[in-house]
């Protein structure tokens, strides 16, 4: 098991899976796509359109590759010969995202009820 170093804690605090800037949920979508099957950036980008926050649109290639590089730099993905795979840290981050989205959903449902009163 990996130790929790100050550097790792700082990276985790910056991670959107802890509720920071969501940017149309690109990070969890990419993690999910790559968790299903290792992919190159082009293939992953095409698959994004099927996710709810993108409504059949595709982010630009530069944004996709920026996210893939940032996630690789943080140890969430590995890249070999242009194909990205999820690491153990990436799997953990994806699980964090699922929990964060569940919590945001509950909060938004409560807020919606409060605003309806």
Describe the structure.
Strands 1-2 form a two-stranded antiparallel ribbon. It is built from five helices and two strands. The model has no long low-confidence stretch (mean pLDDT 86). 60% of the residues lie in helices and 7% in strands. The longest helix is centred in the C-terminal third of the chain and has 29 residues, at 88-116. The chain has one domain (24-116): Arc Repressor Mutant, subunit A, CATH 1.10.10.10.
Order of helices and strands: HHHHEEH
Helix content: 55-70%
- Terminal-residue CA separation: 49 Å
For the CA atoms, what is the radius of gyration?
15 Å
| Bulk shape | globular
Beta-strand percentage?
A: 5-15%
- Write down the domain tally: 1
> What structural category do the secondary elements indicate?
mainly alpha
Q: How is the quaternary structure best described?
A: single chain
Instruction: Write the CATH fold name.
Output: Arc Repressor Mutant, subunit A
Biggest beta sheet summary:
2 strands, antiparallel
**Taking all residues together, what is the mean pLDDT?**
86
What is the name of the CATH architecture? Orthogonal Bundle
Write out the CATH superfamily name. Answer: Winged helix-like DNA-binding domain superfamily/Winged helix DNA-binding domain
In the predicted model, the low-confidence regions spanning at least 5 consecutive residues are none
Structural descriptors:
globular; 117 residues; mainly alpha
Secondary structure: elements and pairs:
Layout: H1 6-14, H2 26-36, H3 41-48, H4 61-73, E1 77-80, E2 83-86, H5 88-116
Antiparallel strand pairs: 1-2
Helix pairs in contact: 2-3, 2-5, 3-4
């Amino acid at each position: 098991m990996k130790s929790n170093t100050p550097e790792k804690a700082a990276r985790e605090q910056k991670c959107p899976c802890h509720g920071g800037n969501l940017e149309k949920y690109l990070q969890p979508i990419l993690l999910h796509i790559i968790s299903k099957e290792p992919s190159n950036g082009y293939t992953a980008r095409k698959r994004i359109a099927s996710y709810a926050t993108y409504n059949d649109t595709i982010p630009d290639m530069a944004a996709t590759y920026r996210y893939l590089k940032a996630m690789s730099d943080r140890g969430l993905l590995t890249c070999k010969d242009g194909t990205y795979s999820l690491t153990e840290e990436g799997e953990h981050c994806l699980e964090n995202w699922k929990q964060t989205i569940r919590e945001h959903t509950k909060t938004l449902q409560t807020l919606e009820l409060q605003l309806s009163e």
